[in-house]
Amino acid sequence: MHLTAAQLAHLLGGRLEGDPNAIVRQPARIEEAQEGDFAFLDNPKYEPFAYTTRASVLLVSKQFTPTQPVSATLIRVDDVRSSLALLLEKFHDFLSANGIVPNVDEHAWVHTDARIGTHTYVGPFAIVEAGAVVGEHCIIHPQVYIGRNARIGDHCVIYPGVRILHHCVIGNRCTIYPNAVIGSDGFGFAPQEDGSWKRIPHVGNVVLEDDVEIGANTCIDRAALGSTLIRAGVKIDNLVHIAHNVEVGRNTAMAAQVGIAGSAKIGENVQLGGQVGIAGHLTIADGTRVQAQSGVASSVKKTNQALFGSPAIDYNDYLRAYIIFKKLPELQRKVDRLERMLNKDRDFSDKG
After folding, report:
1. Claim: this prediction has a pTM higher than 0.85
2. Which of the residues 137, 167, 241, 244 is marked catalytic?
3. Peptide bond into 311 cis (omega under 30)
4. Average pLDDT of each block of 10 consecutive residues along the chain (352 residues)?
5. Checking CA distances to 339, which of 180, 257, 289, 320 falls within 20 to 30 Å?
């Protein structure tokens, strides 16, 4: 990616100070940037690096007042973080599509009954089964498997090793990272009289709505009946497991190693920290925030609540309880001393 400082400033709606023809090729941290990089200054803690950085372009707030000379070309913006996010998105899109020409690679296998949209790339050794539909402007990386009658919307990026199994539906502008599995059978078995287990077939599917991101090695199981639903705007980290018939509300985010058991309903704008566990058939209210490594064993009905612990309770209650828990050995010693004192007083009274 080669852009001038003037082009960056125009893209961001920022004010340029310095050389408008300065060329940037990639982002870098302010303390490590070299010529040809663009960096940013958002935290006053890093201001000393603004005077020593070798970055060609530095993104700063409109309020930034240098106390020393700055060699980098400055682009002043209202919100550094938002502007940086936009630049990184453009850079990421460039990397994802760099060198990719929309076509079906000669080493891909696409069934004659499948349909591939215009301006879409299908990489080598990808497989698209009968009845599958892939939308326009998609990137299907090598070794992706798309099952029978699966549907993928427009402007999606599916990374290597992803498996999208039969009848699953992916919305527009979705990104699925390497080795995620969408639509494997749920964990459903019926106990038999002889002590064995009989598998219950899962004949539903998985539906991802628009603007969903699924992390690497995440597994989302198909429903036994109906659909496992991931609503629009949901962001899911790596190594997450979502079981059959779960519903995840709009704009919910969950960190790595979250596990959600079958038929749980997660509300909108929920935040789940790493390794959070949600038991099956629960309902989690909108706006709930659950601290990492917490276990939720009962439904959460109050909205916008923060939870902590296992089983999870109110966040502030947990912190107060934990303070007491840490003091339990000391409290026990105090109780023992009081008990001995009482016993001595009782002995003295008996002798008197």
Report:
1. no
2. 244
3. yes
4. 87 94 91 93 94 95 94 95 88 70 92 96 97 96 97 96 98 97 95 95 97 98 97 98 98 98 98 97 98 95 93 85 85 88 70 58
5. 320
